[in-house]
Amino acid sequence: MSLHLPEGKKIAVNIGADFDAHSVWMGTFELSSPGYLSRGEFGAEVGVPRLLELFQRYGVRGTWCTPTHTMQTFPEAFNRILEADQEIAAHGCLHESVRKLDADEERSVMARQLELHDKYVGKRPRGYRSPAFDFTDDTLTILEENGFEWDSSLMGRDFEPYHPRPVQVSPDEGNTFGPPSPLLEFPGSWFLDDFPASEYVPRVNQGLGGTEILYERWRDHFDYAYRNVPNAVMALTVHPQTIGRAHNIMMLERLLEYMSQHDGVWFAPLSDVYDVWSED
Ligand SMILES: [Zn+2]
């Protein structure tokens, strides 16, 4: 099983832009006051254009994991992303906390989001990232039932795609793994996500630090993968409402500049990376 990157490419870098807008506050945090919603509005009105401009300058095609509530609420910003030839992946309807759903509810959220992808994108998403990187015991099966090709929510590797296995939990006997899923997992990580370090949520998340922590950590991930992992994939997660803030977008620009100075860096949507994977 391995990746065969295009001629001359040594590493694939995916920038996953999770365009959560209002939905993360309403779904994950259960907050819908004007203050929180305005932060999502900043993402749509300011963050998206800034990120698209940066992507255009550095030749980045990214994967925009977008809850369908965002497509409904901010159709103009969403259309700019489509017009910029970026990939759209599934990311829930309202950024639901999937662990609060039973299997039937999770299936109906999936059916509804696929309907809305059809309406707003005009095609089915090939990949999925769960809201807040969380799965239920049913999520993998639901993704397989719905023909998804890849997922990017789990953290069982760092730079190598893999086939995730369901885990049968047994505190007494030791846990056992089921057979590998046909889905390809592009592992994510909270370490490669801008939210924990850089989005302040009173009493919940202290995200008011400087940008050096993210810059150095992401550069070190890149350096490690570039030197040590043949055909690596590095999947970053950024949020327009977070990365679009002035200090953060300047940090991302420095990082793209740094990466671009290396030979063989391929800024690609995850489905393009999926297409060069083979089970050999
Ligand atoms: Zn999200």
Description of the molecule:
The protein has 280 residues and is of the alpha/beta class. The protein has one domain: Glycoside hydrolase/deacetylase (TIM Barrel). Helices cover 42% and strands 14% of the residues. The protein has helices spanning 22-28, 34-58, 68-73, 75-83, 103-120, 139-145, 195-198, 212-228, 240-243, 246-260, 270-274, and strands spanning 2-3, 11-18, 63-66, 87-90, 127-128, 150-151, 167-168, 176-177, 184-185, 232-238, 265-267, 277-278. Strands 2, 3, 4, 10 and 11 form a 5-stranded parallel beta sheet that branches. It has a 3-stranded parallel beta sheet with strand order 5-6-9. The protein has a two-stranded antiparallel ribbon with strand order 1-12. β5 (127-128), α6 (139-145) and β6 (150-151) form a beta-alpha-beta unit. The longest helix is centred in the first third of the chain and has 25 residues, at 34-58. It is globular, with a radius of gyration of 18 Å. The chain starts with a strand and ends with a strand. Bound molecules: zinc ion. Zinc ion is lined by residues 18, 20, 24, 91, 95, 131.
